[in-house]
Amino acid sequence: MFRKLRVPLCWMSVVFALMAGTLQVEAATYTVKSGDTLYSIAKRHGTTDKKLMAANGISDPRKLRIGQRLKLSSRGSSGPTASRTSSVGRGKRVIIDAGHGGRDKGAMWGGVRESDLNMRVANKLEYLLKRNGYSTTMTRRSDVFISLSRRAAIANQYRNAIFVSIHFNATRETWVRGAETFYAGSRGRSLAATIQQELVKDLKLRNRGVRMARFTVLMQTKCPAVLVECGFISNSSERRRCATSSYQSTAAQAIADGIMRYRWH
Ligand SMILES: [Zn+2]
Q: pTM for the complete prediction?
């Protein structure tokens, strides 16, 4: 009886060990060690520091922690990147503007800093757009202050481009929640509409609609330009969602889908 039991148990443990091994390979993670840089980790694993930043929502590559677990690829993850690649964006450029940064933190509620969330969504959005053939320009890549006029000037260097500014919302009326997208000109309006539809659908957010606003970044930008408010961090339940990587990934995917649906002219 014992002998009979021992054999299958032994085999079971081998099977479990194999399964565990397989799972580790699938998850493809790396734990940061002393002396590592994002660049060195990327090089050793046949990827780039930019891809690692996008896959892990890292906005500042200098802020690696020893012991931090990094996703080495998006394969098998529930992230935004999964399997969609195309060349739909070839010849088109998206200026991705992570709102605020540096001394301008944007909204701050419950320990959540808007400028950080904006950067994370921007990094994820860049990754998704590149996978679909778009050229991208980031107005900032780290936690630095950049004036609104400078952001518009960066966009105005390019032809056949659109400008997408990423923000999270806040108000003293803490019950207010939902997504809204702003535009200043008529070409921005249709871009705002497709992005807003995708955001509301994918994140199941209250639809606050698309609105005209004479924001500096929209007024000074010559190409179609929108400013996306991805949710209210002044609302406690929405803030909890906004702070998660999965929410940020879904927001980035929704914005990317909205851009892909936009009729470029
Ligand atoms: Zn903002």
A: 0.70
Is residue 189 classed exposed, middle or buried when 0-12, 13-18 and 19+ CB atoms within 10 A define those classes?
middle
- Between the CA of 26 and the centroid of ligand 1 the distance, in Å, is 37
| Contact (Cβ atoms closer than 8 angstroms) between residue 2 and residue 37 | no
Tell me the pLDDT tens digit for each residue of 27-69. 477 788 777 777 777 766 667 777 777 777 777 777 787 788 8
CATH fold of 2-71: Membrane-bound Lytic Murein Transglycosylase D; Chain A (3.10.350)
Residues bordering ligand 1, an ion, CB closer than 5 Å: 99, 106, 167
| Proportion of the chain in helix, strand, coil states, percent, rounded to 5 | 45, 20, 40
Which amino acid, residue 249?
A: S
